[in-house]
Amino acid sequence: MALSSRFALDTTAILGGGFLAVAAMTFSTVVSGWIGFGVATLFVVLATAAVAVGRRMSQKLSHGLLAAVGLWSLIAALIFTGGAQLWLVFAGGLGLAAVALGDLIAHEATTERVVHQLEVREAGGAHLSRSEDQHQSA
Fold this sequence. Notes:
138 residues, mainly alpha, elongated
């Protein structure tokens, strides 16, 4: 089974967002601002590339939202200073993680729906749905 690029990007964004949230509270304001700038830039580039090569509209929308959150985090890390920068970098990390987690949940929910809608076919090619099977036995 191959690893999908959507899963890889979302998992990386969850980890990167968590790292960014912890870094904002651990390091000084200046250091966390530059870390926020670097991490946000990485996810803007990755998410924009994923939007460009994405096949499904849901994938394009979710990765576009991830790129938008990353872009806001990037801008906030450069423009603001002091306590505002600290909290915006922290919020940007949580935002990246939340959007990526939401995309993973949405993707897995649709995958589960497909798995549970399998049809059973008999060897002779006859197709019986559950309701037809109950009707024939009555």
